Amino acid sequence: MCGIIGIVAQSPVNQLLYDGLLVLQHRGQDAAGIVTSEGSRFHLHKGAGLVRDVFRTRNMRSLSGNLGIGHVRYPTAGSASAISEAQPFYVNSPFGIVLAHNGNLTNADQLKQEMFTLDRRHINTNSDSEALLNVFAHELQVRASSIHLDTEAVFGAVAAVHQRCKGAYAVVAMIAGQGLLAFRDPNGIRPLVLGKNETPAGTEYMVASESVAIDTLGFQLVRDIAPGEAIFITPEGQLFSQQCAAETSLTPCIFEFVYFARPDSVIDGVSVYQSRLFMGENLADKVRRILPQVDIDVVIPIPDTSRASALQLANHLGLPYREGFIKNRYIGRTFIMPGQGVRRKSVRQKLNPIAVEFKGKNVLLVDDSIVRGTTSREIVQMARDAGAAKVYFASAAPPVRFPNVYGIDMPTRKELLATGRTHEEIAAEIGADEIIYQELDALEYAVTRCNFEVKQFESSCFSGKYVTGDIDDAYLDRIESERNDSTNSEKDKDLDLNIGVAEQNLM
Q1: In what helix (H) or strand (E) does residue 131 lie, and over which residues does it extend?
Q2: What are phi and psi of 84, to 5 degrees?
Q3: Which of 262, 201, 267 is CA-nearest to residue 235?
Q4: How far apart are CA 231 and CA 243, in angstroms?
Q5: By three-state DSSP, how is residue 253 classified?
Q6: pLDDT tens readout for residues 193-245
Q7: Which residues are known catalytic residues?
Q8: Which residues 6+ apart lie within 8 Å of 314 measured at CB?
Q9: Model-level pTM?
């Protein structure tokens, strides 16, 4: 999971891109990068770490121009932090193209082989984003007949990308001297929204992973970019759009609404906050059925993403809602951290209980989801250490039993707590007196209630059904083997999120 942004402005764009990436920081903490365009010249700066650490005043001054794209990186499929895989990526032909990508290509290995044997292009990293960039560059080169690029060639190249690339992808790119391009995979798995801002000098446009970036930068949300659609914006502010996929289906990732997206975002016409309130209502109904005779004294959320669900659950059941954990906001997300050892250590640093809310009480803890169970186990133990008489645990999402192959770094099936375990066994594993999971149909309905035009979802981590149709046990076995090899090779290395910065000016 990553965050992407692209802006065509009427004035220098570097500060807007920086501010936008700060707002999207929750989508990736591993690396950040910005490219701006000044005529036919690109200015690039990227590095490992948080946005605030990667960009200094001297870096921002070098990012001149009125067009630009940005990226915050969240590593997937067990990949390690590496400056070489920080985005955006660049190729010099045709014209010069920079690209940033959110998602994951499920046929990346095949594409890399085709690049070498058929397209005669070189892939220099393990990133599927570089493969996607080179596929697009090759297809554009085939269609570009002169130094003056037309939209027919651009949209034709995107159509070819849709034919060759499988998986999930939301993309922003710039073509030197030509304009900014954005497009979304035919299933609409990863989000991408369009905004605009009317100024005395003309209209400015922005595309971003979430509407919250558009709101906070003073732009107006226009609409979501449709599955399979591409938009192209010239430096002068002319916007062109076209559907580039033969078959499309709006199938957004359900985990965006459960966990990743900010609650103040609207994705595919769905208020993330409202959907989480509905999740809480549905989960309350499940709690009432599972624990009809249980005396619950207080409902406590696991901050931050479960707050809305926990609050609505408490209201629905007529129970007191309390904040029982204080969060240290200077510790990284435990879900994203590599290595169980680092994750275990960080839980205690990240959360601290308020003992008065636990002592002698039967507590219902509410979290957005349970993946490995490491965090849940630590939290339940913290509640007991703080004096809780009984600890019940509710998840706003169903049991996670399958890997996500579309851009979320889910563990292997063996590492997932719910795989092969009953509810009773899961409760015992995390030390809870009882565990209550949301039903999948109830979760999906909670989102659909916010926009009835969204009728289906990419929910493979719960159901094992992969919407692209190209995932089988052999594929999962292979990526899990690669993940295990990567983990074993890195397990003795310390993570350093500030390993350096790469900077270059590109023609």
Answers
A1: helix 128-143
A2: -65, -20
A3: 201
A4: 9
A5: strand
A6: 999 999 999 999 999 999 999 999 999 999 999 999 999 999 999 999 999 99
A7: 2
A8: 299, 320, 321
A9: 0.90
